[in-house]
Amino acid sequence: MALRKGSCQLQHFLDANEISPAEFARRMKVSESTVSRWKKNEREMTYENAVLASRILNCHAEDLYDWIEVPKGKRQ
Fold this sequence. Notes:
The chain is an alpha+beta fold. It has helices spanning 10-16, 21-28, 32-39, 47-57; strands at 2-8, 65-70. It has a two-stranded antiparallel sheet. Helix 2 packs across helix 3. The radius of gyration is 13 Å and the shape is elongated. The mean pLDDT is 94.
């Protein structure tokens, strides 16, 4: 089996930590539009951004996305 990223769970963690997207963007040192793109799955976070986000949101980096098991060699 292999894994692929599913939907971004960023909004869930923002809500749970009561952090606005604007405040999160400020702490991440990225634009609000970048945060919006992450939440809409229009752009994936880099590993470095996921680690920083996880530190801000008190979670693990892998928690920021749903993970889908796919048969090896079938990256859909």
